[in-house]
Amino acid sequence: MKFISRENIDCQKWDDLVTNTPGASVFSLSSYLDEIAENWMVYVNENYTKGIAVPFAVRLGVKTCYTPIFITKLEWLGENQGELAQFGRELKTHFPLGNFCLNQSLEDVHSEEFVEQLIPSNSILSLGSQAKRMINKSDKLAHRIEHSLDKSAIFSLIRSELLPKISSLTEGSIHRMEKAIEKMSEQGHLQILSVFQGEKCVGGLFLIDFNQTVLYLKGAFTDDAKKNGAMYAAMNTAIKQALSEGKSFDFGGSRVEGVRHFNLQLGGLDRTYNCHQWDNSPVWYRWAKQLRKALRKG
Q1: Which member of 79, 162, 172, 282 has the lowest number of beta carbons within 10 Å of its beta carbon?
Q2: In order of start, what are the domains of the chain with their CATH numbers?
Q3: Residues 59-88 pLDDT 10s
Q4: Full-model pTM
Q5: Kind and range of the H or E run holding 95
């Protein structure tokens, strides 16, 4: 097995591997990675029957393996995972610096365990008391939830409602998401649920339907709509539709405890994944990072 740079990847073979791996996420698709990751390569065998995608950035000439925003984690694809230990060793050799989240755990690489939430396809949906109250609130206000083709209304809400509040969200990352959403739409994977109060759009969800899983990618709502249960109602609609079609529902992952509580209220179940970190970068690079931090604080 070996690393293959983006320009040399056989994308048809790679995407076939992703599609044919049960439970594999849209995060590994070439078209998604092209838009979301700064750079990416694959670690794969010659006939593309097993491997993994590896996003990376280059800072001051130092390659850093990282997990981009709008990707929770990557996963080993295809045949047995016997090469995971070898992959971990070669990963640290190829990339001096890393912060890489995976479904699997790599030997001899420091990792921290996190949880995400999922509802398996065979689940009987069970809502928490808070979710029930908020959905009733939304019903009383006659929020109208509809499938839509209007991406611009939700992106407008993302910029007005989320951009000022979430430090990790930037205009640049939103632009990347816009391009990825467009690709998913072109490939028939995108679903949009819009929520209306009268004729006004007060919120909506971007959902990706891929490989028998519906993934909640991002959504935004006005403060009033959220307080009155619109997001609970929209997510509940998306979940019920996914389960009715025999698909799992993936909440997209968040390390914020309040978001986890929201997901659990809607029937989500915790599932663990691993974030691997290492730093073998040159001393001068670490000094440069510390200096940059100090200048930002100053």
Answers
A1: 172
A2: 2-115+273-297 (3.40.630), 124-266 (3.40.630.30)
A3: 888 999 999 999 999 999 998 778 888 999
A4: 0.92
A5: none
